[in-house]
Specification:
By secondary structure, the chain is mainly α. Helices cover about 80% and strands about 0% of the residues.
Length: about 140
Amino acid sequence: MTNSSATVLTLLILWALLLLAVMELLRARLVLSGAVAGPEFKPDNANLSPFMQRLARAQSNCVEGLPLFGGLLLVALVSHRSAVTDGLTPWLLAARLVQSCAHLASLSVVAVNARFAAFVVQLVIAFYWCWALLVT
């Protein structure tokens, strides 16, 4: 890839896909072991372990964020203004990974606060990109 924005956009998509793949592999293992019948799965994994519920939510968070964060990266790329986004893309990706990993790790106060802080970093970056893309 030629620039950071394209690379990070691809990595954000890959991260969402990886979380989905892990969830589906774990679900397949549950079905094959006879622990759960296939039709019993709920989209949020509410009838499964707390980890599986956190995994479903972490994956959903990634998918929910893609139109916002990925959309801004795409606007920058197609308008040939990726210089606006390139500098902060590593920070956006790092914040997304921290948010997801904190989500997967625990629901403790520390983990929830870490998740929230990582999300705030992403929001600040996104608002800055909106402003910069509109005024430059």
